[in-house]
Amino acid sequence: MQCAKGSVNVRSNKLSQFGQQAVFVGPAVIFFSLIILIPFILGLYYSFTNWNGVSGEVSWVGFDNYKQIFTDDPQFRDSFLFTTKFTILGVLLTNVLGFMLAYFLTKPLKTRNVLRTIFFMPNVIGGLLLGFIWQFIFVRGFSAIGEATGIGFFNLPWLGTEATAFWGITLVFVWQTAGYLMVIYISSLNNVPKDILEAAEIDGASKLQVLRSVIIPLIMPAATICLFLAISWSFKMFDLNLSLTKGGPFGSTESVAMNIYNEAFDKNRYGLGTAKAIIFFIIVAVITSLQVKLTKSREVEA
Question: pTM for the full model?
Fold first, then answer.
């Protein structure tokens, strides 16, 4: 009888634990499945079809979409090359600028809180709205300044040529995202132990040596996060691309995200578009995983 009662109690405890887990974790699992998991599986299925995104007829084509992307789609290759160059430059500039701003704004400045707010504010503005604002600045504002001052920099066709449009998108991207990374770097810099910095200064280390040999190694966890965010943001950049250049001139500044969007919704080739999205997802996942593994290996503990 006692054994039977003990087994019943164990079962009831397990059921109660399962019920608690279902209450707390169940809604998150349901929403994750509905919003991410199921659409991903459906997208993977449609990437092997020639569905146009509208009709009810779906034909299985196997790996034909993937073969077409790798053998007969120069526009996708061009958009991927543009996105790669933009990502390398954007990740480098945003992290360097974000760290520099954080480093100087952790100094005892009277206006540092105001400056932090000013540098973070561009991140609050939505990408599409920000792009249209900068489009007006590039087209009207810079030309007016150029006519008034005669400085050639402002008279450049910022959104009119391949080279200047690339730098224009990069400029706006860095201006928008550096402030967000600045906040992360500020938090990490404030957690650097003061006694370690004081010991380095007592040993005769210069400010540059302290920065290079003490501060940077100790803030590598923040660098891991910031590099991950910058890589994902720049690879998935769509709203700035759409509002500034719409991929022009002549498709020279079309990002991979915009190429996928145009393929699926403008050309009504949903199957081919989802195949591109799957390839894009795998590439970004591999790159970010390698980046996290590399930077985590360089982290040290205070």
Answer: 0.85
**Residue 233 placed within a domain:** yes
φ/ψ of residue 59, rounded to 5: -110, 135
Q: How far is CA 108 from CA 103, 105, 164, 167, 193, in A?
A: 11, 8, 38, 34, 17
pLDDT, one tens digit per residue, over 130-187 is: 888 888 988 888 888 888 888 888 888 888 888 889 999 999 999 999 999 999 999 9
In a domain, 192, yes or no: yes
- Other Cβ atoms within 10 Å of 52 Cβ, number: 15
Q: How many domains does the chain have?
A: 1
Which distant-in-sequence residues (6+ apart) come within 8 Å of 49 by Cβ?
A: 58, 59, 60, 61, 271
Residue 49 in any domain: the answer is: no
CATH number for the domain that contains residue 95? 1.10.3720.10
- Smallest CA-to-CA distance from 98 within 30, 183, 8 is with 183
> How far apart (Å, rounded) are the C-alpha atoms in residues 81 and 255?
9
First-residue to last-residue Cα distance in the chain: 58
Summarize pLDDT for 171-228 with one digit per residue, the tens: 999 999 999 999 999 999 988 888 888 888 887 878 888 888 888 888 898 999 999 9
Angle among Cα 216, 220, 221 to the nearest 5 degrees reads 150
Residue for token digits 């164990």?
10
| Domain membership flag for residue 60 | no
- Which residues form the domain of 135? 69-297
**H helix or E strand, kind and range, residue 59:** none
Instruction: Write the DSSP string, 254-275.
Output: --HHHHHHIIIIIS--HHHHHH
pLDDT digits (tens, 9 = 90+) for 79-107: 999 999 999 999 999 999 999 999 999 88
Q: Running DSSP on this structure, what letter comes out for residue 125?
A: S
Task: Measure the CA angle with vertex 71, ends 65 and 76; round to 5°.
Answer: 75
